[in-house]
């Protein structure tokens, strides 16, 4: 069950980034994936794995990803001359984490 929840949340994180015309840099993807993994473990540990709990986690992850996109837009685009999406970098993740605690990603 944990793996399924983790995968569903990761799909949310990647979808929202792509919807904004962005993708994660490799190091940032690892950090976001680790955050999602830790969040799902928190959900299981707290025995909060109902659909309602998942929806709350999904909504909070969405807030965090939207904040990452917003913060990333403030940084210069170092890939402007390269094809492909703008990459969300770790600095945007760090800045976006300032809105935490967001359950279960505190």
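Q: What amino acid sequence fits the structure above?
A:
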């Amino acid at each position: 069950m944990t793996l399924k929840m983790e995968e569903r949340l990761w799909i949310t994180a990647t979808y929202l980034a792509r919807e904004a015309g962005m993708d994660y840099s490799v190091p940032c993807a690892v950090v976001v994936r680790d955050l999602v993994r830790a969040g799902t473990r928190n959900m299981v540990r707290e025995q909060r794995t109902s659909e309602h709990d998942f929806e709350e986690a999904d909504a909070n992850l969405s807030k965090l990803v939207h904040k990452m996109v917003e913060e990333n837009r403030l940084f210069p685009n170092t890939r402007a001359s390269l094809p492909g999406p703008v990459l969300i970098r770790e600095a945007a993740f760090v800045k976006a984490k300032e809105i935490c605690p967001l359950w279960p990603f505190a």
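Q: And what stands out in the fold?
A: The mean pLDDT is 92.
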